[in-house]
Structures are given as structure tokens and as C-alpha cells.
Amino acid sequence: MTDGNSLGAKDRVRNVLERVRAAVQAGVDWVQIREKSMPARELLFLARDAVDAGRELRPGEARVVVNDRLDVAIASGAAGVHLGGESLPAREVTGWCRGGNAPANFSVGASCHSVEQAHEAENAAANYIFFGPMFDTPSKRAFGSPQGIPKLAEVCREVRIPVIAIGGINLENTAECLRAGAVGIAAIRLFQDAGEAADLRSTVERIHRMASSDS
Fold it and tell me: For the chain, how big is the Rg over CA atoms in Å?
């Protein structure tokens, strides 16, 4: 997940794109363009370049999704759109997409903060959900107290679509989330603040090893 605000105002699009390219080269499978305050025009340019980077660097492996903006996701050729609490309803989006308005493999994801919301997303035909916040983190405090591993495990048992853990994820607690049934993790600081390319690659490789051992 990207956060251009933390990279400084100058050359924001270029800075985010550089981080996206580094993440893809390091082996990150999914990149979410999450730039809530970026003007639509800039966001479209960024999303297009990010999609192109994924196709260039790891064709068929790295996928780019756009947060909230269905229009930008479609126009940029992204692999999907991720819906938050203030986005369009998942049922409306999936219905529109599967009415022949989006590519057949276009994904719709939804952020959930309870078992009930997870069921709603599944019933709305979402392809996957983000569940959290798992642990305390400043960016997710507005969504309530941390959910914790037992609640994540309950959600993973309750729904049949993939569940991705989010919120305060680091290398020390990733394995707990995977053992609870999550198919993966989503994070900003874990990847964006990894530092040198070698550090980022090492981080991604460790996560992949954890996922393989729990599969």
C-alpha cells in the first residue's frame, strides 16, 4: 500500500512510483495505490505508470489495485479496486463490474472491521477482504481498538473469500496472522520504510517463507 504523504510533497507521483517499482522488484505480489488526497489527474497518471511497471518488471505476477476510485482503476487498466468504509457499496460496484463494464478478472476488495461486515462483503460478491486493524497503529486508530488474532481467526472461518490482515503488521506478527487463516498481509510502513532495496527484498522473502510454511 502506498502513502505519498509520508514521502514529502515535492515530486510526489515520482516518489510513489519509485517505491512501487522497488516493491515489485522485491517480489511484492499486490500493490494498492492508496493516495486519498491526490488529485484525480495525478492519480490516473500514477496508477497507469504503476500498472505498466508491474507488467514490465514481473508480467503476470505483480498486480496493481486502486483504492476507492473505480473510475481510475478502470481507466488505468488496474487489476482491481479496493473499497473502504466511505467508498461506493460493494454490491453496487460488483454488480456494475460484472455487468460487462470491467474485465472478467477485475477484482473488488473491501475493508471490514467485524464479522458482520465480512459476511456483507462476501454476500456482495467481493473477491477478498481486508480485516483489521489487527494491532495498534496510528493510521488505523480511527477504526477502533485492535481486533486481535482470535477475531481474525473467526473471520477466516466464517467467510470463504480470502482474508488479508491489515493494521500494525510487522515481521514479528505476520506469522500469527497467517496461522490464523489470513492468506496474506497488507501494510504501508513495513514495505515503504524498509530502506535499501536489499532490505525490502529480504522483508518480502521472509514473508513469502512464512506463507509457504503455513500453507
Answer: 16
